[in-house]
Amino acid sequence: MTSAPWWQSGVIYQIYPRSFQDSRGTGVGDLQGIIQRLTHVVELGANAIWINPFFQSPMAEFGYDIADYRAIDPAFGDMADFDELVAAAHGHGLKVILDLVPNHTSDQHPWFIESRSSRNSRKRDWYIWRNPGDSGGPPNNWLSEFGRSAWTCDAGSGQYYYHAFLAAQPDLNWRNRDVRDAIYEVMRFWMRRGADGFRIDVVWHLIKDDQFRDNPINPDAGAPPHECLLPLYTTDRPELHQVIAEMRQVVDEFPDRVLIGEIYLPIERLVAYYGQNLGGLHLPFNFSLLSSPRDARVIAKLIDEHESYLPDGGWPNWVLGNHDRPRIASRVGAAQARIAAMLLLTLRGTPTIYYGDEIGMKQARIAPDRLRDPLAKSMSGLGRDGCRTPMQWDETERAGFSRSQAWLPISSDFQTCNVALQRNESTSIYNLYRRLIRARRERRALTRGHYRPLKATGNLLLFVRETKTERILVALNLGNDPISVSFPSERLSGQVLVSAFGDRDRERLRTTIDLRGNEGVVVELDKATVLP
Ligand code: GLC
User: Do residues 199 and 97 make contact, with C-beta atoms less than 8 angstroms apart?
Assistant: First the structure.
């Protein structure tokens, strides 16, 4: 029997580098800071880190606007720091996943500067240039994800260029062969330096309609202004899958690498990104838990749908939070953040943990004058700074993150919510995360086992993970009131492996499972147990 690849059996930990650890007192986290804190990732039990972009950038969009794909931005360190980080991570047995941003560059990237220089530039076609529309305005109605038209007029040539995000982030033209080859070389460059794979930024945006048709009106009248059109002609285009297959071939030139994609699409569209014969992404990010209500039936349904839409051999994955979405502990509350962690780490598929969620960090409130995210400035209320505040390491000044004022304020609860404190509390959410990850490592049923739904009623979610030799029952209470689940066959028996509050581990269970409010248990079933 061949063992599962690391990106199936392990846990990915996402690091937003500006906010993880500042080693130099600049107020901004850096690569040396990550090196200093690798032991935290190891202690947690994750086996890979994905780091948001740290490449050279004017930081109009905090690194998602890249001016040189092959250089480290001085705010984060230099190439020697990167090499040291990879060596240190690999020394700890951790894989390193980089953020690849192929959809757009910075407007300061030499490619764009050259492209913009004249209509006849050799790189004109590397970006998406169009003449004004009939009325003299933008070529069509396409909207930027950050609001307003996605077209900006360049006074020099009188043409418009397309940008799915900020005007400072012009989109590359992925129909151009030279663009593709240039990015593939970037991928090889980092893999040669030891990168174990990529998370591809906004991969479903890469190809736009070649006829530049207007996007249709969104029939949902309540949609925010930037979503008043359906992105039919700007995202998820059929030609995209050819590009992804090419990227996969590049990754497959190197052994044991992974390709993950950022895609916000419903499951029936998402699964196409595994590619024909699984020749696409290894893991198209599954964001369904990011927006699911706290309702057992709804969650059970989305798990079932996910399982049933997966192509043969396609490997699932689950996400509770990232640098673009409000923190889970604020979405569902501190008590249910534990239940969410239990779900994330017991479902079939690779879990990705967003830094800080393992200690229950909340969405921070940030005074208007300290907001940094350009999205907060263009569309108030949608800013993402609140989930990007510095990691809370301890109760010392600035939470152990930095010697000087941090680029974003430290969340006000850092003295009660930090790693140092929670390490020493056996019942902390941090230790729950650790126990869950350890259980995954030790029980094959939790990594490789099938998923079998048992019950989803009211606040109770009950499922089993099983192999031929192991069966693990997961019982989660999504509400505040106690629940008692009885198994009339009287043949249920087992032992608690992990419990939400950390005070029932190794307890024997027979026939009935009593759950306190907001409690969950992971139970190793005895062989003789008969399940309905
Ligand atoms: C992705 C990133 C997000 C960024 C956007 C544009 O969605 O996750 O942070 O704003 O791409 O690069």
Answer: yes
Residue 1 has pLDDT above 60, yes or no: no
Decide whether any atom of ligand 1 lies within 6 Å of the 62 Cβ: no
- Of 43, 253, 256, 490, the active-site residue reads 253
CA–CA distance from 47 to each of 2, 425, 498 (Å)?
19, 23, 20
Q: How many whole angstroms from 164 Cα to the centroid of ligand 1?
A: 10
Long-range contacts of the stretch 377-384 (C-beta < 8 A, 24+): 378/146, 378/147, 378/148, 379/146, 379/147, 379/224, 379/225, 379/226, 382/224, 384/323, 384/324, 384/325
- Residue 48, strand partner residues: 12, 95
Return the structure tokens found at 176. Answer: 């151009």
Q: What is the pLDDT of residues 25-65, one digit of tens each?
A: 999 999 999 999 999 999 999 999 999 999 999 999 999 99
Six-digit token pair at 146?
């950050």
Mean of per-residue pLDDT scores for the chain? 96
Region 243-257: mean pLDDT is: 98
Active site residue 253: yes
Polymer length in residues for the chain: 532
- Active-site residue, from 30, 81, 201, 262: 201
Residue 238: band (very low, low, confident or very high) from pLDDT cuts 50, 70, 90: very high
User: What global pTM score does this model have?
Assistant: 0.98
Q: How far is the CA of 323 from the centre of ligand 1 (A)?
A: 9
